[in-house]
User: Fold this.
Amino acid sequence: CLDLKTGKKLWKKTVHKGPPQTPMHLKNSYASETPVTDGKYLYAYFGNIGVFCFDLEGKMIWSKKFDPVKYRFDWGSAASPVLHQDRIYIVNDNEDQSWLLALNKKTGEEIWKIERDERSNWATPYIWKNELRTEIITPGTKRVRSYDLDGNLLWELSGMSSIVIGTPFSHDGLLYVSSGYVLDNKKPIFVIKPGAKGDISLSKKQTSNEFIVWSQKKAGPYNPTTLIYEDRLFVLLDRGLAACFDAKTGKPIYKKHRLPKGRAFTSSPWAYDGKIFCLNEDGVTFVLESGDEFKILHTNKLAEDDMSMATPAIAGDRLLIRTATRIYCIKK
Assistant:
């Protein structure tokens, strides 16, 4: 825990020591999952170890351990926990037995756990509170699935790529889901309206139906999550290409444009003050104009040795960037 204003270390806690029980991908770590807080307690999840609850002074309140499982190609885990009201929801899609779990945030007690017909995925679930109900959205290779808060299946959708990483989100009452493994032909973006039930999958010739407002079948990114800003859906592809669509209709605003040569993009883009920001693995941020034309405004470089794969966090008027060797706090 660092002081936000000064960067001074306030406390540090170790939750597990021991040799790794499973391998991991070169781009992964044993702490890829993002912690979550309700402002009173901090919840940190380490996929093959367990979930740990601390107060904000660093005192452990409870912990729940998990048995290690195998992931596709030994890539390790990555999906982060989500917090909603008095529960923590965790998805663990793996090669042994995939599941969705609800825990009591105060005690760590299991409320319910359901098995999922999925193998390894790395997508963080999303709590979609829409005009009709609150849903747990879980992207997957076989199916995107929506559950109610008790784990009952509401609707499902096929057609994702073979590796699913991006996080779903909502905008103006619609749900946006994407996947785009670089070696697949299927790289979809789906936009879904509330009230769906059953199987809402598209046929090969369809791009929309009763509950899918629009789709793009070959536009989704692989690692980064898509971004909506000023009613434009911005797509950043791992290999340094950027494209833009109308968020409400799916109509292309501009097709793929290449960012200047450099290492790949793993972190997701963010937006502020009429600009789109794209941080690549070399620690270079490309600042694009948020408009109907592709235009690079600035290029910002971190230190030479700063490999950057984590999506920055925004806290008030501060931007926090975590690299392989440093944490930056940037203001104004």
